[in-house]
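anyone else get weird line breaks when pasting these?? whatever heres mine. first is seq + tokens for prot A
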Amino acid sequence: MDESIRHHNPNPILRANPLSKLLFWWMNPLFKNGYERQLEVEDMYNVVNEDQSETLGNRLEEEWAKEVERTKGGKRQPSLFRALFRMFGFEYLLLGLILLLEEATKVIQPLLLGGLIRYFTPGSGVGKTESYLFAGGVSLCALVLAVTHHPYFFGVQRIGMKMRIACCSLLYRKSLRLSNEGLSKTTTGQIVNLLSNDVNRFDQAVIFLHFLWVGPLEAVAVLAILWHELGPSTLAGFAVLLLLVPVQGWMGKLFSKFRTKTAKYTDERVRLMNEIIAGMRVIKMYCWEKPFGDLVKKVRNEEIRYIWRKKILSATVAVSWVLGPRFVYLVVMTTVSLVGIHLRARQLYICLPLLFHMGQMMMGVLFVTNQNIQDVKVVFIRFYTFLQLSELPSTEHGRHEKDYSPAKNCRIVIENVHAKWDKEVDQLTLQNVSATVESGRLVSIIGPVGAGKSSLLMAVLNELPLLEGSISVTGRLAYVSQQPWVFSASLRQNIVFGNKYEKAKYDRILKACALNKDIAIMPHGDLTLIGDRGVSLSGGQRARVSLARALYMDADVYLLDDPLSAVDAAVGRHIFENVVQGYLKNKPRVLVTHQLQFLKEAEQILILKEGEMIGKGTFKELSMSGIDFSSLLKSDDEQTDKTASGHVTSTSGSHHLQRSMSHEPQSKLHESSRHRLHSTSSKSHEVINGNLRFSVHESMRGSELSLTSVGTIGDEFSAEEVQLPEEEERHQGTVGLSIYYEYFKAGAGIIKFLLLVFLCLAAQGAYILSDWWLSRWSNEEEARYSALERHNALLAEGYYATNITIPIVDTNFNVSVFSGIIGGVFLFGILRALMFFKVTVDASQALHNTMFASILRSHIGFFDTNPVGRILNRFSKDIGHMDDLLPVTFFDFTQCALLILGIVGVAGVVNPWVFIVVAPLIVLFVIIRRYYIRTSRHIKRLEGTTRSPVFSHLSASLQGLHTIRAFSVQGKFIEEFDNHQDLHTEAWFLFLTTSRWLAIRLDWLCAMFVAAVSFFCVVAADSLNAGLVGLSMTYAMTLMGMFQWGVRQSAEVENQMISVERVLDYSRLPSEAPLEAPNDRKPPPDWPQHGRISVQRVSLKYSTDTPTVLKNISFTIEAREKIGIVGRTGAGKSSLITMLFRLVEPTGSITIDDVDTLQIGLHDLRNQISIIPQDPVLFTGKLRRNLDPFSNHSDDALWKALGEVQLKNAVEDLPHGLDTEVSEGGINFSVGQRQLICLARAILRNNKILMIDEATANVDPRTDGLIQQTIREKFRKCTVLTIAHRLHTIMDSDRLLVLHDGEIEEFDAPHLLLQKPEGLLRKLVEQTGKTETTNLIEIARKSYENKNRDDINEEVQASNLAEIMRAISQHDVAMTIEELDELRMAESKEKEAENGTGDKEEDIEDAAEKVSREESETKDPVQDIGGKDEDLNVDVGEMDNGVKSVDGPTGETPVGDVDDEVESEEKSKLLADNGKKADDLDVDVGKVDENDEANETENLLSKDEHRK
């Protein structure tokens, strides 16, 4: 689908001749370009057919299918190894012949060296011509090694690359087929880890595998030569090597064990990071950085523990490369000396290279091979486990056919379906569901949260396995998911979805889905790239894009899972008329909806309850059967009768339907659930006067207005700007020394670093010293042998004595010193390796922690502009490189560099003539390396940036798995994945070939060096002895492979350091303000006490180069005030949340209870504000941790909070209760249940300020009402700010803040704002339709009148309080009552005159006298006096003697918290004692516990008697 990743640049290897392929000359044009400028994607060569992901994936899929088929019914398990071997085995075996030739050359070369050394041995009989021939033979062997080594390595690495590509392709195809049961047993993190780290083992394992059979053959040849030279003593060395084989096996198993453990924790860490990055906004607003940081730190520490254990083994392996040959030398030399054989130089320097090679082979190469085999075994096990996960059965409509022709008589037939997600749970998800959807018919499915609506669609899509019944679909399906899925590509690609672009059809669909104007203002129109998960689009835009995609597919049958929930009523009506009943009118449609006003237009309605169909039929049929929709529906052309109280008249039918819906379980599973929550029923809290009340604005989806895209249809539509994702940064130039400095600084202090340098030099010194001692020893033996020969010759000639001094060689001394030196090599070598790996592992740990801390503290804009895959790539691939590859590569390079310096130094000291050749060779080396490294660096960085889209595509595919499968576009997504893989392969292929281009040139330089040393030795024969020639030639031959390896490792270290550079980039991200303020700026511990918010001259912009989104706004919100926030798309509603939470730092002044929030710590602020976000976010882990990550609350508090959101019964029914594991993304809870859990979080926090970002978009009317009711009850003493996408939720607010273009347009009571004909709120309300406008205006009016009356009563109460306080102070209760009575009568007459009611007012209570006497006795202050409605009520509250409230006469229920009324008989007695009539007074005693009320009343009466 993404054409931008394709380019045409044919690979020149296809046209290259054999010599060019051998020497990699075909790469020269690329190096030229890379040297002159930075390489781009277009410069990379296209993959050849044999390396293509599609080709390899198809082949491996076929082989795996054969493997599965062959093992069916048998005891043998399918083997991925066997499948891969059938693909690549023959080609791989042929390459082994090249390796055999190379290793044979390495055996022959020491024999020729032995012949050359004989020339320097007195009396050997070797002439100068022969010596030149021997020197030429040694040089020729060096050239042969240069020619054979690189084709082999390039060939096996390319096979490793193919195996990796094939396995990745197979893994992706498998992931698209996973059933929900299979998905529950894996995570995105695990799949990403399989793709990023595990498959890399193939690249390494194939390199040395051939040594398993070449090594033993070579060992036999070497043993024969050494036996010829040294006799049976040779066996001692081989015995040592054989004894080490079981040790290697044991260490290999340890490697495997540690690798498995490491992979487990890496999976967990990557999964955690995936969740944290995706949910960062919620984490910041909830102040959860610390618990998530601790969680990652805990997992990372476990991961590092096993990485360090692996590195200890790696240190042993690294030392064995150097120490192994030396140890064999020691054993052989000691054995030879003990049996009395005197080693001469020729023997020594034939045997040393062969022993060196065998030591490296047995203790180095074979050990690494064994380690790689164990690693690959673990990978095969992990892949096998993944490939065995359950799949969906392939179905007819699950396949995509390019030449598809529309089916006739399209339909869906559902017959007696029973199904459940989790086989282990008894509760069924669906039971006894039957329906038929014919062409041109619309079937609507309704029901509360968790009723099984989405599950029914999943069953039709074959995602939910059936236990009984059947579902047949005729025609191709299209599916619109409840949560819109958008992937990272252009808008057009999201809609066209890989189909052919047809402009007329495309434009018609855009118009039907109301997307025209959105696209018109996008920077590049419909070619605008949108970010990962569609972060640059609003929720409404994502929903319409998802719908447009379904229309463009031109399917036969449409399943629509509540696609109208994210759009406003006007757009919803437009889409329903133009799409559901327009564009799709001739096709079968299934519409899951909570928007009940559309039910009349459905041909059939299904009502689901607890997964069971409790009603089916047309609107008319259901109405006639006793189900009356009049209380549930509201349409523009329909008037609904109302009672005088403004409530919908309930009939028995509506009562029945409402009961069936309001008592639905709130705990059904979402369509992708893993576990099933059992049902629970919730009691209605809306019983008034014994009748069930079903409020219009709480039950109707029709009375909603989503302001996500207000006015989309009209001329006033304000389209939303799209924020483009940033391109990934790519550095240029060399990796600076500062990167190395930061790396070692992170892993070691100055002392540790100096100690490391000392150990490196000491180990290298001991290494050279051991070789020098052997040379000295052999020279002593050579001198002794020469003297003995001359002495014996003279004796043979008849001399009885000679004056020849025969040197004494102290063999024991030589053996002892050599043993001591070898001990030093071992000690310093192992300490060097351990120290080096300790420093690098610590550096990796420190840099990971720094990067993670930086990510956690970075601004939220960073996560909006960078896709998850890009950030995750740093934590998976780059950290993986720093953990595994970089330490080994860096150590290898350090070891090689020291050896090379030692070799060149020794050869030069022995024969200064060598420096004549060394100087120009060094110049050539520097030029070639510089020429290479510039191109190599570009390619390595391209490899990093082309790798990210592979992971992003995988992540996006898993998110939209149901949609992909429903549309049957798996083939297209596989093709897209293959394209991304091919692009990455282009970079990787160039990385392999550029490495070989350099290596073969360096080996040719080394061959020239070997030739120079060998011929200069012959030239300078007069000044050299056999030992020195042997030493310098052995070193020169050792340099042959080591030099190019060391240089390549130096380049590889620089390439690997790019990972460090990338990690350091993310470690230096701009940080938010401090989380905690200094003590002098910390707010008081009990702040905020009231919740008063004052905003003065505040402006906000998301970055320096973006426009200002909030423009110099000022407003004040009083304590406990309920504020609604409305405005068109882009008006700045969400920016208010950003501003108050300081997710982006604003300018101006924001105070809460007189504390400047811009001066305090972020946690000081954010901990005091609760938020219920629009998109509910749950994290993997226990439900308890999702509710209370800090463990601040008891279990009782958690259960209470769950009870208040009607989830307690559901969670109690789960096997583990609060310890239930939440699946990745929370998908084992429905969307509505996730929202309720977020509400429970807010209840637990119990803050004075609550922000609600439209928390009811995905729930049914009943749950919507529940949430609104809970908010009003639990947060009545809080300041509440509600960002409204639906107007009915905020029309009863105290005031509405209306935003327009970042400025406050209006701010007043909704009723007053609606009186302005040209006001913005009035216009927004009028867009909902005539009937709904009337309804909203009525809600606002009643709310305003109630609040206004309460305000007047509060003023009266305050006035009454003053009068009573004055009278109490004067102890004149009688006067107080008389004056209040007169005051009351005057007010009553005024109201009668105004209202014409002539109602007779009753006298004021005598209770004030009683209260005043109580006051005089107890000296307690009067704290609360209140009134109610038109009658005067006097409340005297919160007194220690138990009298809490006394209210005046009224016929209504008192406003205050009143438990019971004092019996009229007791009141009469009390008033009689005070000389008043009992008939005129009602006395309420409020806020008194029922158990204490009687006693308190008696006390009150007895005290009155006493006073009287």
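and prot B, same format (seq, then tokens)
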Amino acid sequence: MSASVQVSQMKQQHHQRKEHHQRKEHHQRKEHHQRKEQHQEQHYESSCHLSAKSSVSKQSFSTYKTTSHRVKTMVKTEKGQEVVKLSPLPKRAKRTYLAMDLDKEVIGYVIPVFRANHEEVRGLMEAREEDVTEEGINYVAMRNLFVREAKEALELRVEKKTRTTHIRESAERLELNKTLEEWTEFRKKMNPDSLTHAPEFIGRPRGQTVWEGQTITLHCTVAGWPKPRVAWYKNNVPINAEAHSEKYTIESNYNMHSLAIKNCDFYDTAQYRVSALNVKGEMSSVATIVVKRFQDSEEGGTLESKSYGFSLEHGVTFETTILDKFEVAFGREGETLSLGCTVIVYPTVKKYQPEAVWYRDSVPLKESKWVHSQWSGQRATLTLVHLNKEDEGMYTLRVNTTSGYDTYSAYVFVRDAEVEVQGVPASPLDVRCHDANKDYVVITWKQPAVEGSSPILGYYIDRCEVGTHHWAQCNDSPVKYARFPVTGLVEGRSYIFRVRALNKAGVSRPSRVSEMVVAMDPFDRARLLGPSAPWTGMIKFTEEDHTVGVIPGEPSDVAVTEATKSYVVLAWKPPIQRGHEGVMYYIEKCISGTDTWQRVNTGMPVKSPRFALFDLAEGKSYSFRVRCCNSAGVGEASEATGDITVGDMLELPSAPGTPVATRNTSTSVVVSWAASKDVKHLVGYYIEYSVVGTDVWIPCNNKPVKQTRFVCHGLTSETSCVFRVKAVNAAGYSLSSSDSESVIVRAAISVPAKPSGVTLLEAHRDTMVLGWNEPANTGGAAIRGYFVDYRTVKGKVVSQWHELNLQALTTTFYKVDNLKENIVYQFQVRAMNMAGVSKGSLPSAALECKEWTITVPGAPVGLHFLEVRDSSVVVLWEAPAFDGRAPVNGYYLDVKEAEAGEEGWKAVHEKANKSKYIKVSGLEAATSYVFRVRAQNLAGVGKHSAVLGPVLAETRPGTKEIYVDVDEDGVISMVFECSEMSEGSEFVWSKNYQAITDTSRVTIINEKGRTRAIFNDPSLEDLGIFSCVVTNTSGISSSYTLTEEDLKHLLDISHEHKFPVIPFKNEMAMELQEKGRVRFWTQVEKFSKDCQVEYVFNDVIITQGEKYTTNFDKTTGIIEMFMDSLEMTDEGTFTFNLVDGKAKGTTSYVLIGEEFRALQKKSQFERAEWIRKQGPHFTEYLGFTVTPECDVLLKCTVGNIKAETEIIWSKDSIEIRDGDEAAKKLEQKDGVLTFNIGKISKKDAGIYEVFLKDERGQDMSRFDLTNEGYQAVMNELFRVTANSSSQIQVLSTEHGIILYSMVTYYHEDQRVGWLHKDAKISASERVKSGVTGEQLWLKINEPTEKDKGKYTIDVFDGKDGVKRVFDLSGQAWEEAFEEFQRLKAAAIAERNRARVIGGLPDVVAIQEGKSLNLTGNVWGEPVPEVSWTKNERELVSDDRYQLKFEHGKFASIAIAAVSRADSGKYALVVKNKYGTEAGEFTVSVYNPEDDEKEEEKKD
């Protein structure tokens, strides 16, 4: 131990607690107090080491309890019984160590360092002296050592030891340890069982109460031999620290054991038991941990500010600020929603990271597939994947630091997903599994808020085995109770569940699936999750178990835990006598009043001590009992339950009290109600609202809430709503409460915010003029005035605040009189509205009251803004209170972005602005700006005003502008609408931003959410800027600039409305109909059913009769007047006059002069045509057409013909009869008569006529196919031919290149021209054009480079011509020219090729002995080489064969006397550079005598 003075640890703890309550005192005072306390502390210390292997640090212990027995006292209970009571443990008990020898055997205890006061030591010594006889040898040794040190502590105040003394004492202690070890070893050899004893708690864990989010540690000290095995349990369930290392940490050092629970939450509230077990027995100790859950406000927003404490660990006080807060959010099932906040922690400490924890309804959220959180140190984000109604609730972000914590909360609403079938209920929610056993589990859920078009009839429960995708329905008929036992599970398998609701319209979507549950015995589940050797409550022996083969006993405590109309659930305890193997159960039932017991599960016994019985008769009474069975047999029946009547044990909740709705914000209402009376197992409440005037009820929450106050968000502003509430429990819904009184959704009125910018505008000897800015938030009501307070300032001393005005001020400036000169003052301002008075503004700077000598004007005051839009804002101000030496003659406005520095100020305009307002344009959307104004007089420009802003350049959603309206009476007005008006809001109209007081020019009419400014007599006096502001809102305003041009346009519209004109879609028109009938008509665009028409001719009203027929079709607006014929007296003006109320319309048609006569003639013609068409007639007269094949057809169409109608064709007045050749060209089909001339020529010219006649009349048509008619036919033929021409194609020959185009037919009179490079090609020997059949060609002989270029063929089409173009250049030229050269070379080679051109026979028959002379004519350029072959063997000129080649043309062969050997196949072979050719012939030599002999032989 150090020789320095040691301060008692218990004194230090007491002193630290005292300092914790006095942390706000000055630091120097605290240090002085510490030094004073140090002189009053005592130092007591004793230490002893009984083992050389155990070295105890001085920080390891802080308790005075080191032996295995605490002080015992006898006390009497209230009943007079004596019990043993142990002395209390110290408040911070620390662990002790067991002392062990080299073989790790326990031989004693290490005595911890003890620190205590005199009274504690004296009481401990006296208690130990009384119990000395009960201790063993080791305990005696420890007691004596402990007492000796305690006595020394009584006598010694402070002891300073030198290093030599300390070393000597250490050596003595080591020697003593060695002596004790030897003595202990000797005793152990003499009596090995002397140290063996059951586990015993020297220090027990203590129960604690902590706040959620903290870490708590439970400590205990355990003695016993052999060394006990220690296990920790939570509510009798083993704690597996290895599997949940993020939550638990278990440590065991010697005989000290601890359990650390990290980041405590509400579910860590439990009884924690520590169990120590060895062969001598078991001992347990229980500590209760209570984790307090913080409760946040129900509404979104920051909570009350926290007081931050000093962090001893880091030496600073952390302050947390939460920015960019998420607001009340709305999502829909299936969507993904993210919440986030920016967190600033000041100051910043390196390597220190605060903790961000998310809560839903005050329950901490854990990472799952539905919930993902992210914390970067500055930004906390929570993402909810695939929203479900279970995700609805109050979400809280809590930021924990070592100085404290800060929170922010807002509500998240989850709406139902769109249903596939209208009227079905919404999906249930919050499906949970309870009481899981080997083959049984209870499923619970919450009913949805929306039942659909009809009440819910029941629910279906589905299950799915984990690892599969097959859902099986658990119940055949729907259950109405929101709790259902599922049986038939397979032991050891895992399941998930879901629920669906049913009504008359159909089945809902399934709920979110439950958490996975394993079908197994709870004890087995705990054993699997816990340590490898948990405490079982008894010591198990390894001898043979004699209970094998024993029939189990009867179960106990059989009881009905649940009873509904659909089922009854039994529960019981397993038998005590059940053998070594597991047991199963049979359930029996008996109808009350009978003695007959019926086994329910005859097929298969159940494994779980739970069972659900279905198919019981509702209203009947039953009793039940249970039997156990195993392989040895079936045991005795348990005691029967009492009579149980089948029916719902849980009743529907009663209706809640009538809700009371109060205003909250512009989109939310606070609803409160009285709770349902005598309700059992309440799940919560659902709140619904309905807009007044409708019968549609909409849920406010889709997850039931248990509190009786709820904030309904997402409402439409300025709508009138009523609310109702219904309660829900497992049995179902209650009746809905009575409807609340209607409430208009608008923001509640509150006191205004504080004014700002209190500045001095002007000062005299005893007066000061103050100015300030209006509050940023008026509290939903108009500011009624301001109150100004003042106080004096002397150095750093300030006086109390005093009121200056008792009557509220209506301006934002105030002249303070009766002040004292050269005295320094401070001022603050408070605003007032109908809700009350705001808090005081920030005090102004210290202002000295003295005369100003400034010549320039003061600062403008009353800056405010209107009409905030994305790119503009209107800034307004008031004149300064102090003009200076001259009147103010203008103003300058400066602007800058809010984030920019002082260098960012820019002038909005260059010239001084005479008005006290200006519209600033060119702003950047979503950017904040600040403004200031300076006034100017002749002396100069004064100082700038207080800064206005920041102002965010952003158009509010739903912003409406002023628009101009002209009604039907021609009244001009300006209209402005606002949907966000609150109580007390008013429309205020201004002209040029001055309130309109002169009602002679404009009349203001206000309606609900709408105002109209009517011009009484619009004139140039009304030109200007008209603006409208809505009070008690967040600056809703708009303006309209009325210019001279706009006024003129509005006056024109007004005149049209005052003196309306009936509009016509069409002015009056005239058309000639069949029989020469004349129709005058028009169409009206807009009219009423009362519209009347007056028909006028030359100012005389026409009435309907034989001459005129009139009609007005009011369904289409068409007005008509008919005349059967036109006479000379009908020349003039026709008019339709319309009258429709006060609206009139006139339209006329003038029919005179040449127009009248032409129409009259045409009318007479049409009448004659109508008469003609009564018999056989031509609907299309004789004409011609040219077919694609270039055949000419004469064609006409006839109508109204019969079989008896005679049709006669003639040419040049000569009738074409049936036997004529031309008659074959006639054809009649479907009323069409044709004469197929074919390919026309001049012989076909003539006059063709067709006659129709029968008893009804006759008609004739003629076509002159001469002169112009013939030329027209030819032109059409040329057109068809020209258009049939193909694109120009290229053909190479041995002589040159040919360009050609193909046509369907070519007539010799059709002109064809060729152009090269747009110039006409003249014919020559080298370039020629022509026609061959249907081919139009251009031949270029021996082409050269000059022939490259664009070629065009121009085919006459009767008018201009059809051109086809081909570019003979580039690749096209190269390919054509190359092919030409190839063909030319081949032709030359063919002409000059060596060949035999004649003179040789095919066969030569010659008599043996005769001479053979043959000569062949040879051609070739150059002269070919000549050779002769016989049987493909070349012959050489010799005595037998004489071979000659003369004049380069004649090759001869001569054989003087042939013999049979000369027979064979001969060839004359010629060859030059262009080729080789052979003239073959056969020589046959015969002998007549030999031939005769052969014939004789044959005979």
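btw re prot B: The mean pLDDT is 82. The radius of gyration is 60 Å.
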